[in-house]
TrEMBL record:
Mode of membrane association: Multi-pass membrane protein
Comp. bias (Low complexity): 1-14
Keywords carried by this UniProt record: Cell membrane, Membrane, Transmembrane, Transmembrane helix
Ribosomal protein is among the record's keywords: no
Disordered: region residues: 1-25
Presence of the UniProt keyword Membrane in the record: yes
Protein's name according to its UniProt entry: TIGR00366 family protein
Domain of life: Bacteria
InterPro entries, per the entry: C4_dicarb_anaerob_car-like (IPR018385), DASS-Related_Transporters (IPR051679)
Main location: membrane
Transmembrane residue ranges: 34-54, 112-133, 154-172, 178-194, 201-219, 239-257, 295-314, 326-349, 361-381, 401-421, 428-453, 459-477, 489-509
Length: 510
């Protein structure tokens, strides 16, 4: 969902100079949005295609064959390539690659190269999540869970952080977390904790879950599609990562929470008079209605079935479960049907359900458009035959590394990309077409490159100031960014070491 802007607040009077004229307002420098970054990248990549030599690998079963890179001569002139730049977003959505020429254009004949399937899937997930949120089932469910565990503080922290982590690993819970700060802050204050505990239970929980995404459609799904593999490929390693990293994050937050209760002077966000008032006011959570309980069952069942449908059970030697092999078309249909079912069961009615579905699709259109724009960059590179040239350079750089070092290098390469493109889906669509084939040269699975990318994206997005989720959450929790960084620094270091270890392990057990 998109972050809504706050209501306008009264503007302070401007300082006046000696002449009585008001000073000019200071302009705040802001980092450009992912759309602006991708626009600049698109134009820059297009310009570089006139400098980078054209070349191709021979391919076998969709993978480049090592040692077969060779130069090619382009048949397209300047005006055709200018047209590619103009049509890049369209090609990114529904371009078709001609089997004879290898060029991608809309309305052609050949293999589909656009991201239309991913585009529709993102809108369907957005509709499903928004419909569920509008029933009030998720918010009330978390509140009831907190009330039941109110007298078991440590267990409550672990359970709540795990719940938010589940949201992150399954559907990339991000902007949705902003609605929970109003619930978590009074709850944690009433338990004797501070605002840092309240904020990090939500932010770190969802963030670590996204870092260790298992079937997150915006990270794992888009990256797997761009890498040419199934979403379920590599899920075993990601499940182990999710369990271990969630436990690590929970232990870190619990350690800080205990330290604060034992010695309040060690708090990074000392209690204010307002906090003491909120702490004294603590109220009762509303009861879950039968409709809301059913909605929660449907919500959980939908994601569980998605996991079942995308996992290649036969590759895992699980013979008693059928491998459905579902992909984006089937999954999009699943979430559309589930959204309608949740709306009707949740009591939204026909009109309310339709409004929620359209509003949810609208909230997620930004993520879908970013995937489209990033895929357009890939089309420009492929039409100019420079993708394989870049791949050949990168392959030479990692040729003599072990599989474990290669996996860690893939993580490191994605860190700066994650900062400049904080959208996980945009990052995936931009980087995976180039990075994923490197796995073929290194003798590791492409799923490991996907895991390395999403780990880097999730790690950076835990603290990056370019993220509306981080800065918006801190604003709602009234926590200074520098104090949040002080809290996060040791955890970021521990996560960095843990992720590197898991990636090396994943490469070793291939």
């Amino acid at each position: 969902m998109t972050l809504q802007s706050a209501p306008a607040s009264p503007q302070p009077a401007r300082a006046r100079t000696d002449s009585g004229a008001p000073d000019a307002p200071r302009r705040r420098l802001r980092f450009p949005s992912a759309f602006t970054v991708l626009f600049v990248v698109t134009v820059a990549v297009w310009a570089l295609t006139f400098v980078i030599p054209a070349g191709r690998y021979d391919s076998k079963d969709g993978s480049p064959v090592p040692g077969t890179y060779h130069s090619v001569e382009l048949t397209t002139g300047f005006w055709e390539r200018l047209k590619d730049l103009f049509l890049a977003p369209v090609n990114g959505l529904y371009g078709v690659t001609d089997a004879g020429t290898g060029l991608t254009a809309p309305g052609g004949t050949g293999s589909f190269a656009g991201a239309a399937g991913v585009f529709l899937f993102i809108l369907a997930v957005g509709a499903f999540i928004t419909v569920t949120m509008r029933t009030g089932a998720l918010t009330t469910g978390v509140a009831r869970l907190a009330q039941r565990l109110h007298h078991r503080r440590t267990l409550l922290l672990v359970v709540l952080l795990t719940v938010f982590s589940l949201g992150g690993t399954t559907y990339g819970m991000a902007e949705e977390t902003l609605g929970f700060y109003g619930l978590m802050i009074p709850l944690m204050l009433s338990l004797g904790y501070d605002r840092m505990v309240a904020a990090t239970v939500v932010m770190v929980g969802a963030g670590v879950g996204t870092l260790a995404s298992t079937v997150n459609p915006f990270a794992t799904g888009v990256a797997s599609d761009s890498a040419g593999i199934g979403t379920g490929d590599g899920i075993v390693l990601r499940l182990v990562m999710w369990a271990c990293l969630t436990a690590l994050a929970a232990a870190y937050v619990v350690r800080y929470a205990r330290r604060v209760t034992e010695d309040p002077s060690r708090s990074l966000t000392p209690l204010t008079e307002d906090d003491l008032r909120i702490k004294a006011e603590g109220g009762e959570a509303a009861k879950l209605t039968s409709r809301q309980r059913t909605v929660l069952y449907l919500f959980a069942t939908t994601f569980l079935f998605m996991i079942f449908a995308v996992v290649p059970w036969s590759d895992l030697h699980v013979t008693f479960l059928p491998t459905l092999g579902w992909y984006f078309p089937e999954l999009a249909a699943l979430f559309i049907v589930a959204a309608v079912a949740v709306g009707l069961v949740g009591g939204l009615g026909e009109k309310g359900t339709v409004n929620a579905v359209t509003a949810g699709a609208g909230d997620f259109i930004g993520a879908a458009l970013i995937v489209m724009l990033a895929r357009g960059v890939t089309v420009i590179m492929n039409n100019a035959s420079v993708t394989d040239t870049i791949l050949d350079v990168l392959q030479s750089a990692v040729a003599d590394t072990s599989s474990g070092v290669f996996a860690v290098l893939m993580f490191a390469v994605n860190l700066p990309l994650a900062f400049f493109v904080p959208s996980s889906s945009g990052h995936a669509a931009l980087a995976m077409p180039i990075l994923a084939p490197l796995a073929d040269f290194a003798g590791v699975s492409r799923a490991l490159v996907v895991t390395a990318y999403q780990s880097a994206s999730g790690w950076v997005n835990l603290v990056t100031p370019t993220s509306a989720v981080v800065m918006g959450g801190l604003a709602l929790a009234k926590i200074r960014y520098d104090r949040y960084l002080r809290f996060m620094a040791p955890l970021m270091g521990a996560l960095l070491v843990a992720v590197a270890g898991f990636l090396a392990l994943g490469a070793a057990v291939r």
